[in-house]
Write a structure and sequence with these properties.
The complex is a heterodimer of chains A (388) and B (381). Chain A is built from 14 helices and 15 strands. Chain A is of the alpha+beta class and 388 residues long. In chain A, a hairpin with a 2-residue loop joins strand 4 and strand 5. In chain B, helix 2 crosses helix 3 and helix 3 crosses helix 5. The chains are: A alpha+beta (388), B alpha+beta (381). Chain B: Pfam families: TOP6A-Spo11_Toprim, TP6A_N.
C-alpha cells in the first residue's frame, strides 16, 4: 500500500464531510457567519535567504473564507456543491473526473477552474489526496523493465517483455505485490526517448525499470481548407498516477532513481516536478514528490563532453508571444528557493545554460550513432552516479 | 454475392495508389532501383537529370470513391503526379531533400535499425544544414519519399507509434505469443502496437455484437472501468483524439474480420469530433499516401443534434476558432453525406459544442444507458 495519510478511508472522509457541513449549519442556525479556514501550501518561493520554510510540509498561512464577502460566498457555494457530489461518489464507491463534476452543475460552475479549485480546497480541508475523494484522471504513464506487480487482481508482468511498454495503473492504491530485480529506476521525459530505449532493447543489458509519460499526439492543422494531420510530441510533465507510482516503487524497492530530460528550461522544470512536486498539487506534495530523484542528464556541460555537433545546439528563445520565453523561464527557475541553498550543482548547470544561451534535446545525442544513448551515454552516467 | 460486393469498385482499385507495408530488404531494393534509374538516365546518350515523380497529394488529385454495393466510401489518390525537379529554380532544394532523406533511410535500413522523426531531423540538420532547417521540412520530405517509393514510413525505418487502446470482448494473438484477453486489461485497455506488420499478422476472435469507437481517453477509461462491454457485448477502441494509422488499421482489420459487427462512433458534438469520425470512416489525405486507406463503415452513434435535448442549455460551450476552420475544411471536402452536412451546419450556426461528459448531468449511470438505448433502437447514422 502507498504511504497513506491517516484517516483517509472512505468512512472517515464521509464522517469529516458530515462534521464540516454540521459546523457550518450550526453557525448559520445561531445567526453567525461561518468561517472556513483553508491552509495554503507551496513547494517553493523566491526567498533566497534560506529562511523560508518551503521544504517543510507545514502550511504557509491560511485563507479565510467568510460569507460576508460575495466572492467567498460564491466560492463556498461551489465548494459545498462539489462536496455533495464527492459524498455521492464515496457513498456509491464510484469514480468521476473533474470534468464530469463540472457538468453536473454547469450553470453554477461557470468554468472548469472553479471546480478544480474546489476539489483542491476539499482535499486540504479533509486532509486527504484527490484520489481519496474518488476523483480520477486519465493515466498517461508508461513503464517497462524488470518489474512485476498486481493491480486490482490483474497481473502486470513486465519482466515477460522487458522492452515492451505497459501502462502505469491509474488506481495506484490498488497496486500490490511489487517484485523487482532492477538495480535502478530511470525516468525519461519523453515517449520518443522511451521508444528509443525499447527499440535498442536497453533493458536486456541493463537491469532497470524505465518510466515515462506518453507525449505523442496527432495534431490537426487546417491549411487552406485542407485538413492535415501531424504526429507531434508534447511536453513530458508527469501526471498524478505516474508520480504516485514512481513514489510507490521507491518506497517499496529502495532503488536509486535517475531522471533524463532535455537540456532546456522545460526539461528542468519537469525534473523539479518529479522531485519537489507541482505548485498546483502543493498540498499533496508529501505524497507525490520523489526527493530521491537525481538529475542524470542532459547537462549543458554534456554538449562539450560528448561532442554534440554545433547545429544541434538550438538557441534559448528570448521572446515568445504565447508563453514565457526560455530565458525568462530559466531566470524564474533560478530564483526558486530550493536552488539557493541546496542543489548547487543543479544551479551551476542551469546558470551555464543561461550563459551559453543554448539548449538541446536528448535526441541530438543519437546523431553520430543511434545506439549512443543506450550503449554509451546512459550506462556511463549511471556508473558515475552509482560510484562504480 | 459477397465477392461481387467486394469487387464493387469494378477493378477501379487499379487506379488507387497504396503505400505498401514492406520489409527492410524490399525497401532497400526500391531505393536501389530508384537510384539506378536516375543514374541510367544521367548516363544515357542523351543525359538528363530526371524529375522525381511523386504521387500528387493535392486536393485536386483526391477523389471520393463511393462504394456501389458496399457502404464504405473512401478518399483515394490516383496516379496523378507532381514532380520534384532540380531544374526549377525555387524547387531545387526540395528535390535534393528527397534524395538526402532516401540516403539516410537507406543507411538506417542497412544497419537494421529504426529512427524517430526527431532523431532523423537532427541527423539531417547535422549532415545537410543547408537543406534542412526545421522538423516540418523533414516531415514533408518523408511524405515525399513515401509518395516516391510508395511504401509506408515504417517500411523506411522510421519508428512507428500508436496512441490507440482497445478493450472489451476481443482476443488478440500475435503469432507465437500468448493470447491477450482485452476485457482483462484494466481501465487503460490493451495498448495498440505501432508496428503495422505485427497488426497485420494478429489473429482476432470475438463474441461481441458491436464495435464502439470512442473519441476521448477519459470516456474510454470510464467505459472500460464500468465494463460497459459486458452489458452491451462490444469491443471498445480509442485513439485518444485524432487517430493514428495503426489504430485505424486495427479497426479496419476488425471490420474485415468481423463484417457483421456495426461500428459505432461516440464523439463530442463539435466539428473536431465529426472530423475524427470522418477520418476513421473515410481516411484522410492529410498524412500523405498512407492515410487514406483503411476506411471503415463507421456510423455516428452520438453525440448528435437530437441528443442535445438530454442536456441543459448551460452545458453547451462556445465553439473555438479552430472548430470553425475544421468545419470549413470538412464542408469543402465534398465527402460528407447530407445528414452529416446538416449536423455540421447546425453546429456552426449555433456557435456551440457539447462534450460527452455533459451527459453526466443525468447521473453516473446515464452514459451506459444512453449508449445501450441508442444501440437497441439502432439510432445511428
Amino acid at each position: 500500500m502507498e504511504g497513506k495519510r491517516s484517516s483517509s478511508q472512505r468512512s472517515d472522509l464521509l464522517r469529516k464531510i458530515r462534521e464540516f457541513t454540521r459546523s457550518i449549519l450550526d453557525d448559520l442556525s445561531i445567526g453567525k457567519s461561518p468561517v472556513v479556514l483553508i491552509d495554503r501550501f507551496r513547494n517553493y518561493c523566491t526567498d533566497n535567504t534560506g529562511n523560508c520554510c518551503c521544504s517543510s510540509d507545514l502550511s504557509k498561512g491560511k485563507e479565510i473564507l467568510t460569507l460576508q464577502r460575495e466572492c467567498h460566498a460564491r466560492r463556498l457555494d461551489v465548494l459545498l456543491r462539489v462536496l455533495l457530489i464527492v459524498q455521492q461518489l464515496l457513498q456509491e464507491n464510484r469514480h468521476g473526473s473533474k470534468r464530469d463534476i463540472y457538468y453536473m452543475h454547469p450553470s453554477v460552475f461557470s468554468d472548469q477552474s472553479v471546480v478544480d479549485r474546489a476539489i483542491n480546497d476539499i482535499c486540504i480541508l479533509l486532509q486527504c489526496s484527490r484520489h481519496n475523494l474518488n476523483v480520477v484522471s486519465v493515466g498517461k504513464g508508461l513503464v517497462m523493465g524488470w518489474l512485476r506487480f498486481l493491480e486490482a487482481g490483474k497481473k502486470f508482468d513486465c519482466i515477460n517483455g522487458p522492452n515492451t511498454a505497459y501502462p502505469v495503473p491509474v488506481h495506484v492504491e490498488e497496486v500490490k505485490d511489487i517484485v523487482s530485480v532492477a538495480q535502478y529506476i530511470l525516468v525519461v521525459e519523453k515517449e520518443s526517448v522511451f521508444q528509443r530505449l525499447a527499440n535498442d532493447k536497453f533493458c536486456n543489458k541493463n537491469r532497470c525499470i524505465v518510466i515515462t509519460v506518453s507525449t505523442y499526439f496527432v495534431q490537426p492543422s487546417v491549411k487552406i481548407n485542407f485538413l492535415t494531420m501531424f504526429f507531434c510530441q508534447g511536453r513530458g510533465y508527469p501526471d498524478i498516477p505516474t508520480r504516485r507510482f514512481l513514489r510507490l516503487l521507491v518506497e517499496k524497492l529502495h532503488l536509486h532513481v535517475y531522471c533524463l530530460v532535455d537540456c532546456d528550461p522545460y526539461g528542468f522544470d519537469i525534473l523539479t516536478t518529479y522531485r519537489f512536486g507541482s505548485m498546483q498539487m502543493a498540498y499533496d506534495a508529501k505524497f507525490l514528490r520523489v526527493p530521491e530523484i537525481e538529475w542524470l542528464g542532459a547537462f549543458p556541460s554534456d554538449s562539450e563532453k560528448y561532442g554534440l555537433p554545433e547545429p544541434c545546439l538550438l538557441p534559448l528563445t528570448a521572446e515568445d508571444p504565447e508563453l514565457l520565453s526560455d530565458k525568462r523561464k530559466t531566470e524564474a527557475i533560478l530564483h526558486r528557493c530550493y536552488l539557493q541553498q541546496e542543489l548547487l550543482h543543479w544551479r551551476l548547470e542551469l546558470e551555464l545554460m543561461l550563459q551559453r544561451g543554448v539548449k538541446f534535446e536528448i535526441e541530438a545525442l543519437s546523431v553520430h550513432s543511434l545506439s549512443f544513448l543506450s550503449e554509451n551515454y546512459i550506462p556511463s552516467k549511471i556508473q558515475v552516479a552509482e560510484g562504480v | 454475392m459477397a465477392d461481387l460486393c467486394r469487387s464493387s469498385t469494378f477493378f477501379s482499385d487499379q487506379n488507387l495508389c497504396n503505400a505498401d507495408i514492406i520489409g527492410s530488404s524490399e525497401a532497400r531494393a526500391r531505393i536501389e532501383v530508384a537510384v539506378l534509374n536516375f543514374l541510367k538516365i544521367l548516363n544515357s546518350p542523351s543525359p538528363a537529370i530526371s524529375d522525381l515523380p511523386l504521387i500528387s497529394r493535392r486536393w485536386s488529385n483526391s477523389r471520393v470513391n463511393r462504394g456501389l454495393l458496399t457502404e464504405v466510401s473512401c478518399i483515394f489518390l490516383s496516379h496523378s503526379f507532381c514532380t520534384r525537379s532540380l531544374m526549377r529554380p525555387n524547387a531545387a532544394k526540395a528535390f535534393v531533400r528527397v534524395w538526402k532523406v532516401v540516403e539516410m533511410c537507406f543507411q538506417i535500413l542497412v544497419q537494421e535499425k529504426r529512427v524517430t522523426q526527431r532523431e532523423l531531423f537532427y541527423k539531417l540538420l547535422c549532415s545537410s544544414p543547408q537543406y534542412f532547417t526545421c522538423q516540418l521540412q523533414v516531415n514533408r520530405t518523408i511524405q515525399d519519399v513515401v509518395a516516391l517509393l510508395r511504401c509506408s514510413r515504417y517500411s523506411l525505418g522510421i519508428m512507428a507509434s500508436s496512441r490507440g487502446a482497445v478493450t472489451g470482448r476481443l482476443l488478440l494473438q500475435e503469432p507465437n505469443q500468448e493470447t491477450v484477453d482485452c476485457s482483462a486489461c484494466g481501465s487503460s485497455g490493451h495498448a495498440i502496437s505501432g508496428d503495422m506488420n505485427l497488426l497485420e499478422r494478429m489473429v482476432m476472435k470475438t463474441d461481441a455484437r458491436y464495435i464502439i469507437v470512442v473519441e476521448k481517453h477519459a470516456i474510454f477509461q470510464r467505459l472500460a472501468e464500468d465494463r460497459v462491454f459486458n452489458q452491451i457485448p462490444s469491443i471498445l477502441i480509442t485513439a485518444k483524439g485524432y487517430p493514428d494509422i495503426a489504430t485505424r488499421f486495427l479497426l479496419y482489420r476488425m471490420s474485415r474480420a468481423f463484417p457483421d459487427l456495426p461500428i459505432l462512433a461516440l464523439v463530442d458534438w463539435n466539428p473536431a469530433g465529426l472530423a475524427i469520425l470522418c477520418t476513421f470512416k473515410f481516411g484522410s489525405i492529410g498524412m500523405g499516401l498512407e492515410a487514406y486507406r483503411y476506411a471503415c463503415n463507421v456510423k455516428w452513434l452520438g453525440l448528435r443534434g437530437d441528443d442535445l435535448q438530454l442536456i441543459p442549455e448551460e452545458s453547451l460551450i462556445p465553439l473555438k476558432p479552430r472548430d470553425l476552420q475544421i468545419a470549413k475544411s470538412l464542408k469543402s471536402s465534398e465527402i460528407l453525406e447530407e445528414n452529416y452536412r446538416n449536423e455540421l451546419e447546425v453546429m456552426v450556426q449555433s456557435g456551440r459544442r457539447a462534450e460527452i461528459e455533459a451527459l453526466y448531468f443525468r447521473g453516473y449511470n446515464f452514459l451506459g444507458k444512453y449508449i445501450a438505448k441508442k444501440i437497441v433502437q439502432a439510432n445511428y447514422v
